[in-house]
């Protein structure tokens, strides 16, 4: 997926992810690597034109989860453009653009499932009815 994030007056296109690994030390000389998080590599670009895209969907993303959202969505291959804009201090708006209806439905399902996973509280199981 092509992801472009608005940051102030500039637009940043996500180009890649780098895994940040931390090394923890136990007693003795053995070391263990723990995978912690990803850093986002982005390039400053002009605002992309959305004229060629026929279909559009919008999804709200909590500001506290925006980095995790970008890293999870970026890993999936698709011919979809995702523009992310801040709407207030607490939320971003992810606008999903596509040329085909099938692709936008697939991307919207993927994005909503990613949001459900990252916003679900830890340690709590869903109650069965």
Could you characterize what this model shows?
By secondary structure, the protein is of the alpha+beta class. The chain has a single domain (2-21, 35-119), classed as Ribosomal protein S6/Translation elongation factor EF1B (Alpha-Beta Plaits, 2-Layer Sandwich), CATH 3.30.70.60. The chain contains 2 helices and 6 strands; from the N terminus they run E-E-E-E-H-E-E-H. It has helices at 66-74, 101-119, and strands at residues 2-7, 10-25, 31-45, 55-62, 81-86, 91-98. The chain has a 6-stranded mixed sheet. Helix 1 packs across helix 2. The termini are far apart. The relative contact order is 0.20. The model has no long low-confidence stretch (mean pLDDT 85).
Topology:
Blueprint: E1 2-7, E2 10-25, E3 31-45, E4 55-62, H1 66-74, E5 81-86, E6 91-98, H2 101-119
Parallel strand pairs: 1-5
Antiparallel strand pairs: 1-2, 2-3, 4-6, 5-6
CATH architecture annotation: 2-Layer Sandwich
Distance between the termini: 37 Å
Shape: globular
How would you state the average pLDDT, rounded? 85
SS element count, helices? 2
Biggest sheet character: 6 strands, mixed
Strand order of the largest sheet: 3-2-1-5-6-4
> Total domains, how many?
1
Q: The CATH topology, please?
A: Alpha-Beta Plaits
The computed structural class is alpha+beta
Fourth CATH level, the homologous superfamily = Ribosomal protein S6/Translation elongation factor EF1B
Order of helices and strands: EEEEHEEH
Q: Low-confidence stretches at least 5 residues in length (pLDDT < 50)? A: none
Q: How many runs of DSSP E, i.e. beta strands? A: 6
Proportion of helical residues: 10-25%
Taken as a percent bin, the fraction of beta residues is over 45%
CATH class: Alpha Beta
Q: If you compute it from the alpha carbons, what radius of gyration comes out, rounded to the nearest whole angstrom? A: 17 Å
Oligomer: single chain
